[in-house]
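Quick one:
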Amino acid sequence: MGKVEPTTKQKKTADILIEQQIKGENLNRGKAMEEAGYSESMQKTPTAVTKSVGFLAYMEDAGITEQNLATMLAEDLSGKPKERLGEMKLAAQLMGIDGASDSGANVQVNVMFEKMREMIDAEVIDDKE
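Output:
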């Protein structure tokens, strides 16, 4: 079975979201989908795109994966353990789990916190050896 290729609209949506982040703008998946040419009905359910296999494959090719985000955040947070809100919001937005209406968002954020805590703990242990 071959690799899933993202559609043109999935690529464009991802590129727009990455550009929004680079510019320091709030990530707006619906707006990105509108600019990419998705219908209004699709814009109302952005996770239909942002959780799709093609979109995730494109993001992975760009180096944006849960594992990479967790690693980068763990590295950043280990230097400032009490100032986490900005980084966590960014991670949640990039992973598409920041919306209150998204089913399971709290569980996903908690899992991300646990992964990051494990990575930070592992780094602390490694530093002592």
